[in-house]
Amino acid sequence: MMSASERAATLAVSAALAAASLTGCAGPQKSEADGTGTGGETTSPYLSTIHIDINTEPETPETGEPSDDGSGARLPLSLDVGAEYIDKFTFICDFQIYGLKPHGMLSSGQQTDDVLTGRGGSFTVASENAMLYSPEYGGELTVSDFISRKKPEYLLLALGAQDAALNPESPPGAFKQKYSDIINAVKSASPDTVIVCMSVLPGSASSGVSIYDAARYNELIHSAAEETGAYFLDISSAFAASDGYLRPDCDGGSSRLSTTGLKKLLDLMRTHYAAPKEPEPTPETE
Predict the structure, then answer these.
(1) CATH code at 142?
(2) Residues facing residue 141 across a β-bridge
(3) Residue 219: inside a domain, yes or no?
(4) In this structure, is residue 11 part of a structural domain?
(5) pTM (2 d.p.)
(6) Does any domain span residue 220?
């Protein structure tokens, strides 16, 4: 059930979107990774689509803001629904955003059991034996087993960066099917969980994975979300510098988000609200 703030945000979205959208990040910022920084302005129309300043409200419209694709999969800009919305999320991720746990970015701090990845901090979607690792839940377990126990209200799938790092120019043929299998496993284990599939972010300049390489995976993730009834959070461009790689202020090293980047991620989640969907009708029987 939505809180009062979420209901108010949902009712106000239509009016707000007529006048509000996002602008680029405000000037250069200092990098937490190396102590230097050149925030980097985006020049490509594709790179200027979704930007938000940390600790600010959404500002004036940009013509590059992605529009609703009509499927209901891509999350549009909404009003900020607050920190309590983030508290409803469990995160299944790979190395890019796993720092949410060790950096204590969530209200549950460093001891949270709401952020999971594979053993060693990586999770490859196309792997035949992709397993999550959770000390809280007894070690290695499948996505389905974890969701059956946890039954989260909201789930953010932040996967695909490991696959892109291995094959930046050519997504494995099984990637979309494997990603769809993960979504369907979650839906089967916990039908009421709201699933949000996050776009793969660009990597560090040394990684070889730019926003253009990530786009190949994001097309497949968007398609998988669309076909399975999940949401798609398209935020890659908010993290891209003018060269297409991860912004220095968001780069925590080895394509991992810095605390600045993680804060930006949480702000973007709060301003792209995923409303719970109506349950699918039960087939009629004679």
Answers:
(1) 3.40.50.1110
(2) 132
(3) yes
(4) no
(5) 0.77
(6) yes
